[in-house]
Predict the structure.
Amino acid sequence: MSTEVNEPRNTMQYVGIDAGRKHWVCILDEKQKEVVPRFCIQNTRADYDRLEKLLGKQDKLCIEDTGSYSRPIFQYLKSRGYDIILIKGLRSKRLREFLRDSWKTDLMDCHVLALVRALEHTLPTTDLETHQTQDALKPLVRLYCDHANRRGKLRQRLYSIIQHSYPELSDQFAEPTCQTVLGILRFAPRETWNDTNHVCAILKEHELQCSRKDIERALACFRNTVGTSSPADTSVSFFIDSYWSEIRLLEQLEVQLARMLLRSPYATLVSLPYIGLITTAILVSEAGDIRRFANPKKFVKYCGFRFSKEQSGDMNLQKLHSVSTPVRWVLSSVVLNLMKYDTTLKAFAERLRARGKKPLIIRFAVARKLLVRLYFEMKKRQHMTPEDNVRALQEGKLPGPMRQALKEMGAFSRNRKRLTTSPSAGPPQTFGACSSVPSSVDCGSGASGSS
């Protein structure tokens, strides 16, 4: 490496440093061409001084955060007044995937780190923020799925208790674990079941929004059946309180997911009639930047919806690929509703059924069609900014959590009652927000509706 001081220059350079036992350095000019070949320096003061002679105060530097390896050179260059940032290794990995470069070497890493600063001027900011949103969404989506599974198990337990004690409820209510039934079992003493007005007053006192007609139907079932469950039974009360607590927590998580999605270019996907908030969050957290995929086939393959062939002699089989992804998990349930209500996909499924295809093959084929549609929808939105998302979402039909996130930002004027967040506040105010998830505990299918 040359140690001579360069002449003063007005051009800007972008410097990437892959910190380790040895530091690899890449210096790019404004046209993203290498000023000097990539070189290696030792973790010594003398090499730091030689590196500084190649830099100018107007240059922008980027170092990968590798703990004790990156701390000395970062502090040295920072003390000299350089514009320098630290990024995690996962961030550089995301950008390497964005550049469609699968090589992982120290020489490639320092080049990618230099591009992090160069792309700040050559690409829209959403291109870099997409990966940050994706990384922030992943743990929140996993947390939502865990609590959705727990909520589903509590719902199944309550369903079995109520069905065993009051079997007539299944004839009167499509959902025996609805708000009316649980409210009566939790708050109304057994001696008040003969007085409809008293029960209505009790439920109103606990801010449960139940119609009088539903209360009368539920009380009629309770009077005609000698139930073994009592409101004083601690096990039933515990399950009901736990069930409501999970619903309140899921409502809060949905609002947090909506806030994060507003920073993504693909937030307006929630306004589509066949995809909801949770499905959009899972799709963005797993797929990230749609420009990683050159065509819809690669996107479908990445999501796990592809077939593999096995051939040996006269045997020629076609079977479903065994890779399971969260996108495959959520869309497998979403397509069940689309096959009933979407005319295009319903006709496609009928054609496959007429050809004698098995139900699982039909579901996968419909899901592949849906993913191709989503691929082009995401392509349309790849350059949208948070301000564009707010303007577009204000005009569309939105799920409740997204509407509340916009309202908290001061970008939505329609009045809406806030969700109950206090753990001691009784049942959730928007009880039906999560009740559409089936007993199969698929957290994605509950979000297939848009409101």
Q: What stands out?
A: The mean pLDDT is 75. Strands lie at 14-18, 22-28, 39-42, 60-64, 83-87, 307-312, 315-320.
